[in-house]
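pls read this protein:
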Amino acid sequence: MRAVIQRVRQAEVSIDGGTLAAIGKGLLILLGIEEADGEEDAEWLAARISKLRIFPDQFGVMNLSLIETGGDALIVSQFTLHASTRKGNRPSYIRAAASAKAVPLYEYFIRSFEAALGKKVSTGRFGAMMDVSLVNSGPVTILIDTKNKE
């Protein structure tokens, strides 16, 4: 699994001009699932993101997690995170998981993240053409890949 985590002041997902979900301060998580992923990837990633200390404390130092701040989360599926641009100019998405595998893992990640966070999160709609808007705070953007745990 790959995730792009963005610390936001606000974020919103819209479909056909209508707002599907919106959050205030918290994290926008763009999630890509590949064929090699499993539930253990979802569990590890959910725990990791929920505990990332990327929010400022009273001294302005990034020292607090989403759990500690009580912020919100918006999780959006994004298969293009597994794009390969090795050959030609058109990206290949061959590593991205097919819907039959990706949907259950996306839902499992959401449940795992909610359990780690201790509250419900907002989501996009899997497979839909979505417009995502955000105000990135910092800006702070972190990339995590469960196959390359740095």
